[in-house]
Amino acid sequence: MRIVVENVDKKFVDNNKREVTALENINFTINEEEIVVLVGPSGCGKSTLLNIVGGLLSPTNGQVYFEGTNDIEPNLGIVFQEIALFPWRTVFENVIYGLEERGVPKKEREEKGKYYIDMVGLTGFENAYPKQLSGGMKQRAGIARALCIEPHLLLMDEPFSALDAQTRTIMQEELLTIWNRTRLSTLYVTHNIQEAVYLGDRVIVLSRHPGKIKSIINIDLPKIGRDSEQYRDQFEKYADEIWGLIRHDAQEALKEA
Amino acid sequence: MSESKKIIKNKVAFLDRKIPRYASVLGITVLLLLWETICRMNLVPPLFLPAPTAILSDGWDLMASGELMNHITASLTRIVGGYAIGATVGIIIGLILGFSRWADAIFTPVVYSIYPIPKIALLPLIILWLGIGEMPKVAIIALGVFFPVLINTFSGVKSVDQTLIKAAVTFGSSHFNVIRKVILPGALPTIFAGLKLAAGTALLLLVSAEMIAAQYGIGAMVLHYGNLMITTKLMFGVMILSLLGLLFNRGLHWLENKLIPWK
Q1: Out of the domains of life, which is the source (chain B) (predicted)?
Q2: How far apart are CA B199 and CA B79, in angstroms?
Q3: Which residues pair with A12 in a beta bridge?
Q4: Best CATH choice for the domain A2-74+153-256 from the list 3.40.50.300, 3.40.630.10, 3.40.630.30, 3.30.565.10
C-alpha cells in the first residue's frame, strides 16, 4: 500500500484578510516500509502538510490517498509534537485508546497493549498517569498508542522536539529499533537535519513562502548504524547538502519571527 | 581568610515554614472563649448576643423536641433536589453549547441575558406558575445552580486542549465519544469550580425562599424565632446553616478528589 500526495495546495486567510499560500504544488509518495522525512525551516508548512496527510486539515486543492488498499480501510497512527496523552487515562488506557474505539475485544486489547508497551520500554508503568512520567517516557507512551492500532501509515510531527538532547538521541535510536520490528511506512516531520539524515530513506526539503518542495534527497546509507564511524563522512555530506538548501530560508525566517 | 567568612543563608525559608496542626483550631477556640466571657460578664444584653453555651443548650431543646429534624429534613430535600437538577441540566447543556457551534451561536445570547437576573426576583413568578408548595423552592434553587454550572462547564469545554480532541478523532472516536471521553473529563476541573460556586448560591436561595414562603425549613425557623425575639434559637439556626455550607463544600471536595485522580 502506498500513500500518494498529489498536487496539494493550502491557502489560508491571515488576520489582515490577506490570502497566504502555505503549501504549493506538493507531490510525493510514501512507499511501503519507507521512512520519509519532511524537513524545513520554521514556517515552511511542514506541520500543515502532515496535518493534511493525517486528515486533520483539508487541502485547498489536490488530494492525499492510499493506493492499492484492496478494499481495506487504511489506518493512520499519529504521534503528536505536544504528545497529547489523555491526562485522565493511565499509560495502558492511553495506549489501547484506538483499539477501544474500534471495538476490539478486551482480551485482545490487553495483549496488544502489553506488547506495544513492552516494545517502547514502558513495562511497569502501565498504571501510571501521564503527569507522573518524564517527557521521554510520555512520548514513548504516545508512540505506543500510535503503534497499537497497527497503522498503515505512521505520522510523526516533531515527536522529540520537546525533549532534551540526550533523551532525543536515545529516542531516535529506539525509534529505529521499533521500525525494524514493525516496518511501518512513516512520514516524519522535523526541523533537525541530523535527525532527518539519521532516520530517513528519503528527505524532502521544503522551502518557505510558499512551502514548496525544494529537493528530495535519497539517503543511500544502511538504515541501522548510520551514526557509526565508517559512514561519518557521507552522513556529514548529506547534512551539509540539506543545510545548504535550508540555510537562506532559515535566516529569512529568523528576521520575520 | 577564616575571619572574613560569610555563609550564604536561604533567604526564602519563610516560604516553606511548617505550622503545627493545632494552629487551625486556635482562632475559633479563642473567639468562642472571648464571646463566652463577654456574655458572662453581662457586657451585652443576651437578647442581642446570647452566650455560645446558651445557644447550645436551647439548640439541644430544639433537637430533643424533634422540631429541628423537621426543619432540617425540609431544607435538605429542597437543596439536594434543586442542586441535583440544576447541576445535571447545567452540565449537559454546557457540554452541548461548548461542543456545537450552532447551539453556541443560538443559545449563548439567551443564557447571558437571563444569567444576571437575581434569581430570587423570579420567585413570585415561579410561585404563580407552579403554585405554593415544594416545587417553586426546588425550581428556584435549580435555576440558581444551573447558570454558574452551565457557564463554568461551557468555559471548561472551550479550554480543553485541541490536540487532545484531534488525537481522539485520529484514533477513531465518534463525536459522542469525543464529548464523553475527552471533553467531559477535560472540563471536569472547571465544572467543579462551578459546582462549588453554585453550592453557595444554592444555600442563599434556599434560605431566602424559605423566609418568603415556607412553614418548615431552617430559613423559616430562623425568621420565626427572630420574630419571637428568641435569639438563642435564631443563632442556632444560623449555626446549622454554617455547618450545612461547610458539609456541602467538604462533600464536593471529596467528590472532586475521587473523580479527578489524575490531577
Answers
A1: Bacteria
A2: 9
A3: A20
A4: 3.40.50.300
Grid cell, residue B213, equals 414562603
C-alpha distances in Å from residue B162, one per residue of A71, A80, A187, B116 = 32, 12, 22, 30
Indicate whether B20 pLDDT > 90. no
Q: Could you identify the residue written with the cell 551514526? A: A227
Distance in Å, alpha carbon of A129 to nearest chain B alpha carbon = 6
- What is the average pLDDT across A15-35? 88
Please tell me which residue of chain B has the smallest CA distance to A102.
B172
Q: Do A56 and B169 touch (CB under 8 A)?
A: yes
Q: CA B125, CA B147: separation in Å to the nearest integer?
A: 18
Contact B167 A130 (CB under 8 A): no
Are the beta carbons of B111 and B94 closer than 8 angstroms? no
- Looking at the DSSP bridge assignments, the partners of residue A36 are A187, A202
Tens of pLDDT, residue by residue over A64-120, are: 999 888 878 888 999 999 899 999 999 999 999 999 999 999 999 999 999 999 988
* A–B interface: beta-carbon pairs under 8 A: 54
pLDDT per residue as tens digits for the range A215-247: 898 888 887 878 788 888 888 888 888 888 888
| Percent of chain A with pLDDT strictly greater than 90 | 40
ipTM of this complex prediction, to 2 decimal places: 0.87
Cα distance between residue A22 and residue A11, in whole Å:
6
Please check the confidence at residue A43 and state whether its pLDDT lies above 70. Answer: yes
CB contact, 8 Å: A156 with chain B? no
The 10 Å CB-count burial string (b at 16+, else e) for B164-198 is: bbbbbbbbbbeeeebbebbbbbbbbbbbbbbbbbb
Helices (H), chain B: 23-40, 52-64, 67-99, 101-114, 123-130, 134-158, 162-170, 175-178, 184-212, 218-227, 231-259
Going from N- to C-terminal start, the domains of chain B cover: 74-213
Whether A76 and B170 lie within 8 Å, measured CB to CB: yes
Contact A149 B260 (CB under 8 A): no
CATH of domain B74-213: 1.10.3720.10
